[in-house]
């Protein structure tokens, strides 16, 4: 049964109550991360860490407030991203994403079909029938010896490259701290993950969902981004105010809107972290659909939507095998991070 569940924002700067439709028991809590940073003892730190891990066990998703990334920084990234997507198709096409091992470059509408399936033929059929209505720009660590980022010319989008590189580093730093909280919440030493996630094998993804006829999105299986889980450790998602992100309540199977809360980052567990934790932590299905609130009830075009996702990964040479404190019997065989991530990417792109 659906009902209105309240989401409480704890931070003083953001003290307000937000409402989200939710199935019974389903909650995406708002975590004030300044409490983790300001904690004067390990026990105090662990209080926030436990809240985070408890949410990752239940819904797999949290909103994080007071995360330390300024609004100016985030809005500047959104501005540069918008300027990039406004470039002529021909210019963007020259920066095309080419190889899952690189996972860098521009992905035009219809090239990716995110789904839960790991079967390439099934994904290909889905892509034909119901492609994702989005374009993206994928950015990796810039000092990789093998793979180069596909940067636009400085004169095409002034300041783009530097803005994105700075933001990449900023998100990496937050990921390290978030993983420290995950470690504490799992009763591991705070630095447990540090040396396993320090090579920045992450992927910064700029997303642009163009305005689209609502009727299109109402079609069978059609969405701005189809139901999927993410692949890595944690995803840091910055969403603009348009809305449309929905998270599946794992108990009821109902998709619940993850309504944007200004100033917060949505953070969710990816498949590799779920696997690492022997499914103690949950990697939850989510999707992007037409926003619940349209401009008017007669509106047939959904507004454009922008978001920025930072897909954090373990180091590519990290072996993912059942963590301590996560059950006696491993559910999965060990897997190398790069093999896993590249395999998933290879299946989802054409
Ligand atoms: O655009 C969004 O809000 C979510 C995007 C997403 O889930 C993804 O790219 O994996
Ligand atoms: Fe996602």
TrEMBL record:
SUPFAM superfamilies: Clavaminate synthase-like. Keywords: Iron, Metal-binding, Oxidoreductase. Residues 200-314 form the Fe2OG dioxygenase domain. It holds the Pfam family 2OG-FeII_Oxy. It comes from the Eukaryota. PANTHER family: 2-OXOGLUTARATE (2OG) AND FE(II)-DEPENDENT OXYGENASE SUPERFAMILY PROTEIN-RELATED. Belongs to the iron/ascorbate-dependent oxidoreductase family. This is Fe2OG dioxygenase domain-containing protein. It comes from Lentinula lateritia. The lineage of its organism: Eukaryota, Fungi, Dikarya, Basidiomycota, Agaricomycotina.
């Amino acid at each position: 049964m659906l009902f209105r569940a309240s989401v409480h924002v704890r931070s003083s700067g953001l003290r307000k109550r937000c409402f989200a439709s939710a199935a019974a028991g389903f909650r995406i809590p708002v975590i004030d991360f300044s409490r983790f940073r300001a904690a004067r003892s390990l026990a105090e730190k662990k209080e926030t860490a436990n809240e985070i891990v408890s949410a990752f066990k239940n819904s797999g998703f949290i909103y994080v407030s007071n995360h330390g990334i300024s609004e100016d920084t985030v809005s500047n990234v959104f501005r540069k991203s918008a300027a990039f997507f406004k470039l002529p198709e021909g210019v963007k096409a020259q920066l095309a994403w080419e190889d899952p091992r690189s996972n860098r470059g521009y992905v035009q509408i219809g090239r990716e079909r995110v789904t839960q399936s790991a079967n390439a033929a099934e994904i290909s059929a889905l892509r034909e029938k119901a492609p994702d209505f989005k374009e993206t720009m994928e950015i990796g660590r810039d000092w990789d010896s093998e793979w180069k980022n596909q940067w636009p010319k400085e004169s095409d989008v002034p300041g783009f490259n530097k803005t994105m590189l700075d933001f990449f580093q900023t998100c990496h730093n937050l990921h390290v701290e978030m993983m420290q909280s995950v470690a504490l919440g799992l009763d591991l030493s705070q630095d447990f993950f540090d040396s396993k996630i320090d090579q920045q094998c992450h992927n910064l993804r700029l997303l642009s969902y163009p305005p689209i006829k609502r009727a299109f999105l109402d079609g069978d299986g059609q969405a701005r981004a189809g139901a999927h889980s993410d692949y890595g450790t944690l995803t840091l998602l910055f969403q603009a105010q348009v809305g449309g992100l929905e998270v599946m309540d794992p108990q009821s199977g109902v998709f619940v809107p993850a309504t944007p809360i200004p100033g917060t980052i949505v953070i969710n567990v990816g498949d590799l972290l779920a696997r690492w934790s022997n499914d103690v932590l949950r990697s939850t299905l989510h999707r992007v659909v037409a926003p619940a609130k349209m401009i008017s009830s007669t509106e047939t075009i959904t507004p454009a939507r922008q978001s920025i996702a930072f897909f954090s990964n373990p180091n590519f040479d990290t072996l993912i095998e059942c963590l301590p404190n996560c059950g006696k019997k491993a559910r999965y065989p060990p897997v190398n991070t790069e093999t896993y991530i590249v395999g998933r990417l290879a299946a989802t792109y054409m």
